[in-house]
Amino acid sequence: MDERDVRLLKAISDLGTGSPERLHEETEIPVSTIHYRLNNLREAGVIENELYDLDLDALGLGVTVVIEVLADYSGSHEQLSERLLGVEGVTEAYFTMGETDFVVVARLPDSDDVERLIRAFEDIEEVDRTDSTFVIKSLRDGQRPLESYSLDTLVGMLADE
Amino acid sequence: MDERDVRLLKAISDLGTGSPERLHEETEIPVSTIHYRLNNLREAGVIENELYDLDLDALGLGVTVVIEVLADYSGSHEQLSERLLGVEGVTEAYFTMGETDFVVVARLPDSDDVERLIRAFEDIEEVDRTDSTFVIKSLRDGQRPLESYSLDTLVGMLADE
DNA sequence: GTTGAAAGAGCGCGCGT
DNA sequence: ACGCGCGCTCTTTCAAC
């Protein structure tokens, strides 16, 4: 991946579109090259799909909860991971170092549903304890991972030369 | 938003594409109706853009850190929020109730960069203390918020009738 | 609100350079 | 890496229900 790829990905993130035409206007890269590059990025596994940016508040999933999960997983964490991911509403799950074993983020329709969620976690055998933190306001939701980086930083970090 | 809209959004999430043709195959909804619906969802603010699903590991942002930020924000949290979001690498930020004031998730190229990140937070005036948790493995990264829900649950939660 | 047909625009892809 | 051109998909409109 070189600077051009990075500029392309950043442009997609900034513009919020994958349209070759629009990307060409932004990056000055010829349309057919954009095509060529995007295909390579696809094959490299960097780009996986095309999706939409959803406004979760507008959708009706306005409640966000961050849950720390402490668990007793004997040996492998695989099975427990599966169970955690199986709980409806879980949008993110991280297996972590340190005091807590997992950090989970969930999106729910309303506060009432939080009870259901916590109960679902507590009902999992391996789970010892959960610690929930309510989110008052979601400042950034992670649907555009490249958003926070400047183009220069990205080029410096990710470009091969 | 009715059941049909929900089925459409779920299909987009499951298939990982916004292609009207593919969505038609999946949902049985005629192509021109899919167009009509998607436009309405756009105007309602539910759909905001079209993006790509990025594999952050493949991209070179393989390190994930969850940071709890304790801060002394006098009155409004707006300004502090801006400063937190200004730190490069921050993909998610939540203003929360409870012991911690903010929960932040960041994606970084390598562990060395974590130091830069923490320092950037500590350099913000209002920030009193930070507590970082390293992520060993990212089990789900939140780029498809509807993923965890079954179609039935979504219809029950979000459809108007 | 839903649908099909039809026309126009934009895209996907291969070839040649 | 880039331009060109063909065929295809998607987009938009419109008339009908």
TrEMBL record, chains A, B:
Keywords: DNA-binding, Transcription, Transcription regulation
Annotated GO MF terms: sequence-specific DNA binding
GO cellular component terms listed in the entry, alphabetical order: cytosol
PROSITE patterns: HTH_ASNC_2 (PS50956)
InterPro entries: AsnC-type_HTH_dom, Dimeric_a/b-barrel, Tscrpt_reg_AsnC-like, Tscrpt_reg_AsnC/Lrp_C, WH-like_DNA-bd_sf, WH_DNA-bd_sf
A GO BP entry: response to amino acid
Protein name stated in the entry: Putative HTH-type transcriptional regulator
Source organism of this protein record: Halolamina pelagica
